[in-house]
Amino acid sequence: MRETDTEDLSLIIAAAEAAGEIACRHHGAAPKTWDKGDGQGPVTEADLEVDALLKERLTGARPGYGWLSEESTGGPDRLTSRRQFIVDPIDGTRAFIEGGRDWSHSIAVAEGGRIVAAAVFVPLRGALYSAGLNGGAAVGGTELRVSNEARLGRANVLANRPSMAAEHWARREVPPIKRHFRSSLAYRLCLVAQGRFDAMLTLRPTWEWDVAAGSLIVEEAGGTVSDRSGGRPEFNRAVPQIDGIVAAGAVHGGLMAALA
Questions:
Q1: What pLDDT score does 41 carry?
Q2: Contact of 156 with 249, CB cutoff 8 Å
Q3: Residue 7: Cβ within 10 Å count
Q4: Residue 197 banded pLDDT, cuts 50, 70, 90
Q5: In angstroms, rounded to a whole number, what is the distance separating the alpha carbons of residues 24 and 11?
Q6: Residue range 178-183: average pLDDT?
Q7: Looking at the DSSP assignment, which residues form a beta bridge with residue 199?
Q8: From CA 30, how far away is CA 17, in angstroms rounded?
Q9: According to a count of CB atoms within 10 Å of the terminal CB, is the N or C end of the chain lower?
Q10: Residue 3, Cβ density class (10 Å: 0-12 exposed, 13-18 middle, ≥19 buried)
Q11: pLDDT (tens digit, 9 = 90+) per residue, 99-121?
């Protein structure tokens, strides 16, 4: 890892832990909630408070970095800055509102379209996942390594129900995978990096802030991350969306071959 990446990683890890303190104070306390409209889903006062903290702390420490967050997308200067923060203050807001445990804070640093430092904190699981480019991935000091299961018929895959619609798969046949679900996309990616599941996928257009940090964590754990067509995701786009995400260990090739 480059020294700059190491310094940025330390910064975003500390910020993620601070975000967890705020979110846990609101969790289970019926936070104020609004619907963002246009099918974007809900937002709570906790999301907004975490977002404000992260923006102040991160851009205050790195004033030359661009800013892209689900709750405050920043200005066009992020497209010309050398590095950018890509943040989801609370990934899995619906689960957070319902009192669930599987929501997370996701923070990434991008440079030249690639993620170079990443942190995902799942406070109620006590799990802080992190990775630096060419520096490996870890959770709680333990190195992460993806699954070596290559057989589709034995694969445990994190995915939502719409991704299992026949129209998404070759010959309209859904492969015989075992589907599981967690609310947070960032957490799903980390569970793949940890080898607890063989793959995760979402086949609809995906916001960068949901998957930026987790994508590096999977790659540094030895896995492969692509869009639904097999291309490598690029980050900090003008329209910050990716055409789906497929992340896996050894079964990635099999999943891609099975997709329409």
A1: 82
A2: no
A3: 13
A4: very high
A5: 20
A6: 96
A7: 157, 248
A8: 22
A9: C
A10: exposed
A11: 999 999 999 999 999 999 999 99
CA–CA gap between residue 135 and residue 202 (Å, rounded): 27
CA 191: distance to chain centroid? 11
DSSP-derived letter for residue 232 is P
DSSP reduced 3-state for 250? coil
- Residues 120-158 pLDDT 10s: 999 999 999 999 999 999 999 999 999 999 999 999 999
Instruction: Calculate helix-pair angle for 208-220, 185-193, nearest 10 degrees.
Output: 0
List every span in the chain annotated with CATH 3.40.190.80. Answer: 152-258
Tokens of 116: 């170079």
Angle at 244 between CA 55 and CA 8, to 5 degrees: 30
Inter-helix orientation angle 3-26/45-61, to 10° = 160
In which element (H, E) is residue 180 found?
A: strand 178-180
Task: Please list the residues that pair with 119 across neighbouring strands.
Answer: 107, 130
**Which of 242, 205, 204 has its CA nearest to residue 226?**
242
The CA-based angle 18-123-67, given to 5 degrees, is 50
pLDDT at 39 over 80: no
Q: At 63, is the pLDDT very low, low, confident or very high (cuts 50, 70, 90)?
A: very high
For the entire predicted model, the pTM comes to 0.96
Please give the structure tokens belonging to residue 253. 């090739």
Cβ–Cβ < 8 Å for 83, 109 = yes
Model confidence at 40: pLDDT above 80: no
CATH code at 3-143: 3.30.540.10
Closest C-alpha to 90, from 40, 51, 53:
51
Q: Which of 239, 230, 234 is nearest to 259 (CA)?
A: 230
Is the CATH number of domain 152-258 1.10.1740.10?
no
